[in-house]
Amino acid sequence: MSVKVQIVEVGPRDGLQNESAIVPAEAKIALIHKLLDAGLERIEASSFVNPRWIPQLADAEEVLRGILPVEKKGVQISALVPNVRGLERARQCGLDEIALFMSASESHNRKNINKSIAETFPVLAEVAKEALALGMRVRGYVSTVFGCPYEGDVPVDNSRRVTDALLEMGVYEVSLGDTIGVATPKQVHEIFAELVKDVTTERLAGHFHDTRGTGLANVVAALEEGIRTFDSSIGGLGGCPYAPGAAGNISTEDLVYMLHGMGYETGVDLNRLTEAGAYIQEQLGRELSSKVLKANLAKRQLEEHT
């Protein structure tokens, strides 16, 4: 029997947040429906941060009301929430899962959240407590686990401390992020091997960026450490407003192609996923970085002319 790997599609939020040209809400809604049609069951649809921080996601309510409730069984739609005010906005939209975020490095945390790590813990603990009381699921993100744009190397003990704190707050899963795409497979092996000493592999996920071309290799390294959940972005969209030079997330198309070729099960239809990638590529008016998307569209074009 093949082993199931869960994919958390973050394109509509993490992928689009770095786009300077505003994508209309109706296009985001259409994209999410295409991702659902492709078989993706976990999609991060938007963020309830202050619209002044990330104008691209100012339409969070409109987008979520355009896709909720999802009739398809087993589908989980989530959004990023920075504070209790954001949680209330998420609740009013009918969401039953939120994500909390912070960094493993002090400098990036201050740039991203405008607070120290110590100051961030009580804010997120309050959000988690209220969300759990409402019956919501809470996921956690830890950024800059493998390197920080301001501090360089980040000690693994920083990531352990933040991961443990999030788990104590009641999050069901912590996604460990290579925010600037500096990780190598050796480092991924070392860090996950350390962190799984305290946490079961089922409660950890990998979030890799492909800035230096090592994204998929890092997924393989994490798979070898027992990790079975990975974040990815349609077309390879993404970046980080607070990490200069950070390229996009690993592409969902590339990830699915690789996992299927390795014998893993994802539940995702690659042909339909290509439709979703082609759609958002057309909406943005530029070629996206996904290699599998490029190859599949080139193949289709060739078939149409023969």
From TrEMBL:
It comes from the Bacteria. This is Hydroxymethylglutaryl-CoA lyase. Residues 5-274 form the Pyruvate carboxyltransferase domain. The keyword Isomerase does not apply. It comes from Brevibacillus agri. The gene is mvaB. One of its GO terms (molecular function) is lyase activity. InterPro entries: Aldolase_TIM, HMGL, PYR_CT. Pfam families: HMGL-like.
